[in-house]
Design a protein that fits this description.
- This protein has 66 residues and is mostly helical.
- The chain has 4 helices and no strands.
- The protein has one domain.
């Protein structure tokens, strides 16, 4: 049974990052100490900080960010 679950996970399509998600990933990679300035990013992208934080939480849940 475990084998079938593993194969189902392997067959699952990879989630492509949207433009905002790619910007978040780049901000994490380039941030000093790994902690981006979410306020500046939200202002730059014209979205709320809450939306950015919710997106980051979702990206963690689906495994885009570890």
């Amino acid at each position: 049974m475990a084998k079938s679950k593993e194969s189902a996970v392997e067959k699952a399509p990879k989630i492509k990052a949207t433009k905002l998600e790619q910007i978040i990933l780049d901000a994490i990679k380039t941030a000093k100490l790994g902690l981006p300035d979410w306020n500046a990013l939200a202002k730059q992208e014209h979205v709320t900080r809450d939306y950015i934080e919710a997106r980051v939480d979702w990206m963690r849940r689906v495994g885009m960010i570890k």
